[in-house]
Amino acid sequence: MTKADIVEKVYQKIGFSKKEASELVELVFNTLKTVLHDGDKVKISGFGNFVVRGKNERVGRNPQTGEQIKISARRVLTFRPSQVLKAMLNGEEYAHLIDKEEDDHDDND
Questions:
Q1: Residue ranges of the chain with per-residue pLDDT less than 70
Q2: What is the span of the domain harbouring residue 30?
Q3: Quick one: pLDDT at residue 103?
Q4: Is residue 25 located within the same domain as residue 59?
Q5: Alpha carbons 71 and 59: distance in angstroms, whole number
């Protein structure tokens, strides 16, 4: 699925013009990028968590030559799917998880 596909779904479902649907999708993605850039976590109930974490500098090896190389420190984005999403992907019953996840969300914030 591409961003254009998401815009098309919003256009069809909500009834905005294509331009408005595109602006809405762009706003959502830009907000997500800004929050992640600032190092904050993004939690989407029923979907999962996006977290930026730091990796320290380390020594690695070039797989072709075996030569040691320095891998610089960096920030990486990780995604942890929610229990609801995991259950959906595995064809399991998930309705009972929706209420539980919302309760967990209330406890953490």
A1: 99-109
A2: 1-38
A3: 55
A4: no
A5: 6
64-92: burial string, b at 16+ Cβ within 10 Å, e else: eeeeeeeeeeeeeeeeeebbbbebbeeee
Q: What is the pLDDT of residues 55-80, one digit of tens each?
A: 999 999 999 999 999 999 999 999 99
**33 and 77 inside one domain:** no
Distance, in Å, from the CA atom of 18 to the CA atom of 8, rounded to the nearest integer, reads 7
Write the single-letter amino acid at 86.
Answer: K
Closest CA to 100 of 51, 44, 46, 41: 46
Instruction: CATH number of the domain at 32, please.
Output: 4.10.520.10
